[in-house]
Amino acid sequence: MKSKLFGLLGCALLGLTTSIGALAQPPKVVASLLPLHSLTASVMDGVAEPQLLLPGGASPHTYSLRPSEAEHLRHAELVIWVGPELERFLERPLRNLAGDAEKMTLLALDGIPLHPIREGGLWDPHHHDDHSHEPHGHGHSDHHHDHGHGQPHDHHGDYDTHLWLSPAFARQFIDTLAERLAVLDPDNGAAYRANAAATLERIERLDASLHERLASLAELPYLVFHDAYQYFEAHYGLSPVGSVTVSPERQPSARRLSELRQRIRDTGARCVFAEPQFRPSLVTTLVEGTGAEAGVLDPLGATLEPGPDAWFELMERLADDLAACLARA
């Protein structure tokens, strides 16, 4: 009788231990894009690994979710994405598959200065300098589990969504994420905050290095493939004068290509940059006979290995590729 009693007690204790262990597991975190995944992995280093949703070589403008990626969303407890303005392919899956998960919608975070999309694709240098805006009235709503449910927010519809290309944004994101994770997983709160502090120090060092490297390029004009770099350009005082496409999903017309060639001549633009997610032949054709060089800039990190280093490598490559083409021209 005693042995049976002890056996039952042992089973009960084992079940309790298993239950407590299950509750103590770190949250399952999914990040939509490689740069966001990288910063998240840095904050979660040594605790757990977040799941990356979008492959590095794919474009969020045109992507379709695969079954394995849908499964990651189904089990997620926290989903980190920019918002429906960029990852339109996620609107319905977030509602249908990850309805109970907490959403961290970056365009809705408090205190994030946003740059309006530049009209027409032909701009004056430093057009972005004094035109960033801070959204009002929606900063806290994304803390709720059902925030947005994939629904667009009108006040963000006209803003550049490539926030991660600004070290200033990266700092705010790191701070916010560490606190959000500490609420979801208090047992590892100290680890998240310590990782965040170390990541912020690393960002400071990189930022100082990039400021020094890019200072001599500030007045050199160039064109980008699409208007994805405002946060990088504004932060480092660069001088873009236009974009090849107004929207990555639409090819420019023959008339627009003619206008762009004239723009290159009028501004003395040294480089026109393609992107690895789209056909480079368009840029190669555009620069023929203009004196400008063709280069490549990658806002997403198409060839980078996912992990805590990827965001830092992405920023360094942007600076290196920009400098290499402008120096060559």
Automatic annotation (TrEMBL):
GO (cellular component) term, any one: periplasmic space
Entry GO MF terms: metal ion binding
TM ranges: none
CDD domains: ZnuA
Major localization class: periplasm
Signal peptide annotation: 1-24
One record GO biological process: zinc ion transport
Protein name as annotated: High-affinity zinc uptake system protein ZnuA
Organism per entry: Alkalilimnicola ehrlichii (strain ATCC BAA-1101 / DSM 17681 / MLHE-1)
